[in-house]
């Protein structure tokens, strides 16, 4: 479609505007009373007025950096002339908190979910094959691969048998936070409502021994939680046979699961963004935020994460924290990351990935500004460490790295039964046992990668939908996917290799 203005103004106080599409040099921009001095790529910024050297650069009336030189109006603005710098932040811990206006329980949205015996609600029904250490990886894959579509045809209510393979469990300290983190991640997946049954494999020489893992996590073996010890089974071939037999004994029970109408309050969404561009913070992220506000009003839960990707705008979350203590807990995690990354060429120290940069994001402040919009304007109710069980409804934060597979793994371990993933450059991410719904930030990428995307938020950029309208569309489609409708990544068979517990503990 033809747009009236090639640039988008996000706020009246902004001194930059964003190009809707590629704009050539010397093109008039009547609304800004200037013309482009250089070509401005789609998603990138143009100076809307003169910006003096050292002056803050404002987008959404938020500082995203400082002019590194005098910048005339019409100039292409990017990392070459926007300097990264320290900001003074007013955390206002809890001062802007406003309670959520909940929908009455009888009037809440519903979906078709699987109610487990303990009352938790699943969106999928998988059998998981887990390893406590990497030495069991090949055996886990062979056991899971045995249960292909032909063998599961008689069990139509089982979504699959999935191997959860990782590279930890050996070569790391035997105690401390790294081992505790690995154990709570594995236990979170084993206990996950979308895991109908589980098989756990140990080798006998893991630094995370199977008996110690069960004892530390409080997991108890039973009809739907079984174990195989490779050495005790008699080696690889016999361990595979024992694992197959163990799963065959669980199939009938797991297949007995049926969907029923349940409240949307049982949906817990892990929010991710990857391959972001200059449009992500304008369309997909705020549209997802609008959808999450609807979910939260209906009693559901949204998990914001990727700690290094909210750096610089964390004060917008602490200000609306339910208590000052919740706000301070978030700042404590930010401080941990700053110390952890001290002296390193990493994102939190300013530099974004090459793909993010090419898409129009100058630095981590600009990326964080867009990323935080996934949470909408809901109050921040709790802050969790990586893979901790999420028990608080509403908008919560989980401390994770920005790397998507690691971050989503922590959210799913915490209980997320759906993942919503925004992307501007085009991500092929998927996940199990919680399915991923992918949101495109712009129409050209959505059209190019339609088989990997679930919904096009680029219509906001095109001027064909508002953020509230897009949020409603996302929420309604989320309910359909939670009810069993396959997402694009599920149809593509993507997700089994994206189980990546945070590898902070490799030491030997």
From TrEMBL:
PANTHER family: ALTRONATE DEHYDRATASE, ALTRONATE/GALACTARATE DEHYDRATASE. It comes from Chitinasiproducens palmae. Coiled coil: none annotated. GO terms for biological process: D-galacturonate catabolic process. Gene3D superfamilies: 2.30.130.110. This is Altronate hydrolase. InterPro entries: GD_AH_C (IPR048332), GD_AH_second (IPR007392), SAF (IPR013974), SAF_UxaA/GarD (IPR044144), UxaA_altronate/galactarate_dh (IPR052172). It comes from the Bacteria. Belongs to the UxaA family. Pfam families: GD_AH_C (PF20629), GD_AH_second (PF04295), SAF (PF08666).
């Amino acid at each position: 479609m033809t747009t009236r203005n090639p640039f988008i103004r996000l706020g009246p106080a902004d001194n930059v505007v964003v190009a809707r599409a590629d704009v050539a040099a010397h093109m008039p921009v009547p609304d800004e009373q200037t013309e482009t001095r250089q070509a401005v790529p789609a998603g990138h910024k143009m100076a809307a007025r003169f910006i003096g050297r050292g002056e803050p650069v404002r987008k959404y009336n938020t500082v995203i950096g400082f002019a590194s030189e005098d910048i005339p109006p019409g100039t292409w603005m990017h990392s070459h002339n926007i300097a990264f710098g320290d900001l003074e932040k007013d955390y206002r811990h809890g001062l802007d908190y406003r309670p959520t206006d909940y929908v009455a329980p009888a009037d809440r949205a519903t979906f078709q979910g699987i109610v487990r015996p303990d009352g938790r609600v699943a969106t999928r029904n998988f059998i998981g094959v887990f390893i406590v250490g990497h030495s069991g990886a090949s055996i886990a894959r062979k056991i899971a691969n045995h249960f292909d579509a032909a063998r599961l045809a008689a069990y139509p209510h089982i979504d699959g048998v999935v191997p959860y393979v990782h590279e930890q469990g050996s070569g790391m300290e035997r105690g401390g936070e790294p081992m505790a983190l690995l154990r709570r991640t594995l236990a979170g997946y084993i206990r996950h409502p979308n895991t109908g049954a589980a098989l756990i494999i140990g080798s006998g020489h893991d630094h995370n021994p199977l008996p110690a893992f069960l004892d530390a996590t409080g997991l108890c073996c039973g009809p739907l939680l079984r174990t195989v010890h490779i050495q005790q089974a008699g080696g690889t071939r016999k361990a595979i046979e024992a694992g197959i037999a163990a799963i065959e004994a669980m199939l009938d029970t797991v297949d007995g699961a049926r969907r029923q109408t349940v409240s949307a309050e049982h949906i817990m969404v892990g929010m991710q963004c990857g391959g972001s561009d200059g449009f992500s913070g304008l369309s997909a992220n705020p549209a997802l935020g609008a959808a999450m506000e609807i979910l939260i009003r209906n009693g559901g839960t949204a998990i914001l994460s990727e700690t290094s990707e909210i750096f610089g705008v964390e004060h917008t979350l602490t200000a609306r924290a339910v208590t000052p203590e919740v706000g301070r807990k978030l700042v404590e995690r930010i401080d941990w990351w700053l110390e952890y990354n001290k002296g390193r060429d990493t994102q939190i120290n300013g530099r974004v990935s090459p793909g993010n940069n090419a898409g129009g994001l100058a630095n981590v402040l600009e990326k964080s500004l867009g990323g935080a919009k996934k949470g909408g304007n809901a109050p921040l109710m709790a802050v969790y460490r990586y893979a901790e069980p999420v028990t608080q409804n509403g908008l919560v934060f989980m401390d994770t790295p920005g790397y998507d597979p690691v971050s989503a793994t922590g959210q799913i371990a915490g209980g997320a039964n759906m993942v919503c993933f925004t992307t501007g450059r085009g991500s092929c991410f998927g996940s199990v046992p919680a399915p991923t719904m992918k949101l495109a930030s712009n129409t050209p990428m959505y059209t190019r990668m339609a088989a990997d995307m679930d919904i096009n938020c680029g219509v906001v950029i095109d001027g064909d939908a508002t953020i509230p309208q897009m949020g409603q569309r996302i929420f309604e489609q989320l309910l359909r996917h939670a009810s069993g409708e396959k997402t694009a990544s599920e149809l593509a068979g993507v997700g089994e290799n994206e189980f990546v517990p945070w590898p902070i503990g490799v030491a030997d």
